[in-house]
Amino acid sequence: MPLFNVYPLYDVTPVSAKGVYVYDEYKTEYLDLYGGHAVISIGHAHPKYVKAITKQVDKLGFYSNAIQNPLQKELADKLESLSDCKNYELFLCNSGAEANENALKLASFKTGKSRIIAFKNGFHGRTSAAVAATDNPNVVAPINAQQKVTFLELNDVIGVKAELEKGDVCAVIVEFIQGVGGLDQGNQDFFEQVYALCKQNNTMFIADEVQSGYGRSGKFFAFQHYNVTPDIISIAKGMGNGFPIGGILIHPDIEAKFGMLGTTFGGNHLACAAGLSVLKVIEQENLIENVKTISEYFVKIAKTIPQVKNIKGRGLMLGLEFDFEVAELRKKLIYDYHIFTGGASNKKVLRILPPLTIRKDHINHFFEALVDALEN
């Protein structure tokens, strides 16, 4: 049976990985500066991660949410401690799209309203409401387009105010650093005013931290660079270092009721073991400080390369913007220099989303290759 052909594929077949490196069937070593869409947070096959998953699956890999699962509470407590998101409640699911779907559903339940405000070039997933709030008509089917969504420009406070005052908006959903869109960010005044306007208009403020969360921005969550307290925070990607897990952190002002949210696989024993090991490694290896150190080092070198016209993002969620489309450059980096990087809907941006364990020598390797690739 052929696979449903929806992915343009590079001719590379990884068979193993360790740390920041991936190896193909010919034992070629690739430096991974993309982390499988920012998923690999603590490095491929981290020994503590492997041990935790192996130990758990040997005991109990899965049972339903109809029974007690102390691992869920342990994960929630560790997440609260490290993120400093005090008094939030955690609902676990399986992916970023599912996290945002549940966030939007919960906002609609809480407010009794149904329209969403989202922002141009944003990406929130491929499920029903999440994809409707994603600014890419190519991934929105007619059945999704029935959702009521208004797209505005980042930093358009006046537009947000006017829409919220119409009284039918259940949620404003925003990435504090846009991922797929190309690492654009709103400014501090914008985020803080939008948050205040949501409070004034009975609208839930949703922080999409699916890609930017778990230290990637230089703080545990990207919204923590600003004076805002989201009603709902969506998480996934780096949360499980490759194991499928997602979730939403829910402000205590939103009351839980039996049956309002649910999932078969979300928060299963194996997922919780993976998620706990990630949090423990982030804490024990001081990875958020490493993000800050390596980010500064990366940006300092990037500024010396004349072909780089703009450096976007923050932490280890970075983009190098050129005055040409980067598709061929990405191919050259993969095939000639054996380095994985990412693209964006802004086709002139090269995305850098490495494991948070990356070191300065890896950054040096990348820039030596980049300079050579740009000159040849």
> In total, how many beta strands?
14
Let me know the largest β-sheet: 7 strands, mixed
Report the end-to-end length measured between terminal Cα atoms: 42 Å
Mean pLDDT: 97
What spatial form do the alpha-carbon principal axes imply? globular
Judged by helices, strands and strand pairing, the structural class is alpha/beta
Order of helices and strands: EEEHHHEHEHEHEHEEEHHEEHEEH
Radius of gyration: 20 Å
Helix content: 25-40%
> Helix count?
11
Enumerate the spans where pLDDT stays under 50 for 5 or more consecutive residues.
none
Percent of residues in beta strands? 15-25%
User: Taking strands numbered 1, 2, ... along the chain, how are they ordered across the largest sheet?
Assistant: 4-10-9-8-7-5-6
Can you lay out the helices and strands and say which pair or pack?
Elements: E1 14-18, E2 21-24, E3 29-32, H1 35-38, H2 47-59, H3 70-83, E4 89-93, H4 96-111, E5 115-119, H5 128-132, E6 149-152, H6 157-164, E7 169-174, H7 188-200, E8 204-208, E9 232-235, E10 246-250, H8 269-284, H9 287-302, E11 310-314, E12 317-321, H10 327-335, E13 339-340, E14 349-352, H11 360-375
Parallel strand pairs: 3-13, 5-6, 5-7, 7-8, 8-9
Antiparallel strand pairs: 1-2, 2-3, 4-10, 9-10, 11-12, 12-14
Helix pairs in contact: 2-8, 3-8, 6-7
Structure in words:
This protein has 376 residues and is an alpha/beta fold. Helix content is 35%, strand content 17%. The strands form three sheets. A seven-stranded mixed beta sheet has the order 4-10-9-8-7-5-6, sandwiched between helices. α6 packs parallel to α7. The chain is globular and about 60 Å long.
